[in-house]
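Inputs:
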Amino acid sequence: MSALLEVDGISVSFDGFRAINNLSFSIGAAELRAVIGPNGAGKTTFMDIVTGKTRPDAGDVKWGTPPKSLLRMNEAQIAREGIGRKFQRPTVFEDQTVADNLTMALKAARSPFAVLGWRPSQASVEKVAGLASEVGLAAQVGRKAGELSHGQKQWLEIGMLLASDPRLLLVDEPAAGMTLAEREQTTALLVRLAQTRAVVVVEHDMDFVRRLNCKVTVLHQGSVLAEGSLDHVTRNPDVIEVYLGR
Ligand SMILES: Nc1ncnc2c1ncn2[C@@H]1O[C@H](COP(=O)(O)OP(=O)(O)OP(=O)(O)O)[C@@H](O)[C@H]1O
């Protein structure tokens, strides 16, 4: 499997504290990967580096084939390369309908320098319907986003990210605050999305990670502590000591 994203020996320090320490790992083009680890392990900082929010002191982040360095791009350029990030708290426009939110995302994806007077074409109406259905919100398109459940808002935001057809989605703790039924739907959604793109999920909820049924990377003190199936990493004595056994 050729790598879509390769993090190569990156380190970053904040006021002398090494949050990321010679971190290396790679993600395939159509892969679902869970990233776990104790608080402060560097999971958020890793996503900040990939999206260009934080610059590493050393190492490289290579993207695509032939590989380009993401470190030479700013945040907007990285987003245009096809890297989308879903933060933990949903940020949808609560007073707008699901369809409006998706339409705005589609418009922003086509023209980041928003065009006044833009009118939705038949193709974009169909695309919005397709996005809503992809994230399980086909029956909710006319509802205001503010009326949706927490889980539905998370799916809407994922749908908004999908409007720009990302090749890599970084998803931060999607299961937090969801009901069991919502978690199960979210698992199915992420698994489905990863059939055609890379999806990296940072998550603390081990039951959720188990349901993702994917390769797991365990971070600790800014480095990879273990990697493999969930059963493999959860048998690792180091992982038990620093993360599971607490
Ligand atoms: N901007 C910053 N300035 C100073 N220290 C920072 C900064 N960002 C992160 N850190 C420190 O770097 C370490 C790694 O933080 P990070 O947020 O990446 O961990 P995490 O694995 O995402 O943790 P959590 O599971 O709690 O979200 C922590 O010790 C954190 O306090």
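Residues 91-165 form one domain. Flag for discussion at group meeting.
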